[in-house]
Amino acid sequence: MTVRSAIREAMKLEDDQKGPIEVDVHREPPHTKDDADYKMGTEREYCGICEHYQVKKKDACELVQGYIQYDHWCRFFEEDTEPAPFVDDQ
Ligand code: SF4
Hints:
The protein is mainly alpha-helical. 19% of the residues lie in helices and 4% in strands. The chain has helices at 3-15, 33-36; strands spanning 39-40, 72-73. It has a two-stranded antiparallel ribbon. Iron/sulfur cluster binds at residues 36, 38, 47, 50, 52-53, 61, 63-64, 68, 72-74, 76-77.
C-alpha cells in the first residue's frame, strides 16, 4: 500500500465515522535520484501525474529523496488515475 492510498483509505474510514487514522507521511523516501534514474520526463510520463507525487507537500515524492520537479520522471513512475487532494499542514 502506498502512502497516498493509505491516506485515501484513512479518509474513507473517517468519513464512515470510525475515528481518525494515523498515517506516517514523514518517513524518509527510500531511493536516491541516482538509484531511481530520475531525469526529465516525457509528455506522457512525468512526476505531476504520478501516484507517488505530492503526497504530503508539493515537490516531494514518497519514493525518491529531495526536491522533485513536476516535469521530471523516474523508473518508479506509476500514473495516478485518482489524484489525491493537496494537503498543506504548514
Ligand atoms: S516519477 Fe518517480 S520521482 Fe516522480 S513522483 Fe513518481 S516515483 Fe516520484
